[in-house]
Structures are given as C-alpha cells and as structure tokens.
Amino acid sequence: MAPRKASVKTETAAAVETSKTADKAPAVKAETKTTAKAAKAPAKKAETKAAAETKAPARRTAAKKAELKTEVVIEFGGRQIDTEEVLESAKKDFAEKHKDAELKSIHLYIKPEESVAYYVANDGIGDPEDKVEF
Predict the structure, then answer these.
(1) DSSP state of 123
(2) Whole-number Å distance between alpha carbons of 82 and 94
(3) Cα–Cα distance between 64 and 123 in angstroms, integer?
(4) In angstroms, rounded to a whole number, what is the distance separating the alpha carbons of residues 76 and 60?
(5) Is the separation of the CB atoms in 91 and 102 below 8 Å?
(6) What's the whole-number mean pLDDT along residues 20-34?
(7) Are 86 and 132 in contact, with CB atoms under 8 Å apart?
(8) Would the pTM count as exceeding 0.85?
(9) Helix, strand, coil in percent for the chain, rounding step 5
(10) Contacts (Cβ under 8 Å, ≥6 apart) of 94
C-alpha cells in the first residue's frame, strides 16, 4: 500500500502546483487585457478625431454644390417678363419715393395683363402709387 500513498502524494503535489499555476495564469491574462485596452483606447480616439477631421470638409463642399440658382420668367400675351428685373425696378422705385426709409421686405404682385407690378414694402399697406410698369 505504500506505493499507492506515494502516488497520491505526487498527484496531490502536482495538482497543487497546477492550481497555483492556474491561479497565476488568469491574473496574467487579466493584466494583459487591461494593458491592451489601455493601449487601444488612445489609438481609437486618435483614429476617431482623424476620421472626423477628414469627413468634415467633405460635407462642407457638398453643401456648396447644393446651392440652386433660380430664374422665374412669366410669359403672357406673347411676351416674357423677367421677375428679377421687375423686382429691381420696384426696389429702385421704393428708394426714390421713400429716401428716409430702409427697405426690409418687399412683396410683388405682377399683373401681366396690365403690364404692371404692384408692391408692398416693409409689410405696410400698399399704396396704388406703389407700382412699376414693365
């Protein structure tokens, strides 16, 4: 029976050594994971900042391309009326009649059958004299 006891002691000693090694192994792995996370965190932040800086100008250039140029032309009775020209005429007329007032807003009412555009400036009540012929 002696040989059996020796083998039990050997197995027990080996099991204790294995358990000690096993206890150390997870601690080493945990330290490795913590160190790896600490090393990756600043790298991710740097990558994120670099990516944000790279993407930001692309969005700005896309917004500049999205601008739309418009032109409104009214056709009536065989003639064409450019609304920009009528608007500029109304602004000039307002400036001549009301030299002391600043133009803040203007609303045009174009009547092509009469070849006249009436306007209301600064949300005031329109005056029949506030018209532009075209």
Answers:
(1) T
(2) 19
(3) 32
(4) 41
(5) no
(6) 53
(7) yes
(8) no
(9) 60, 15, 25
(10) 101, 103, 106, 119, 121, 130
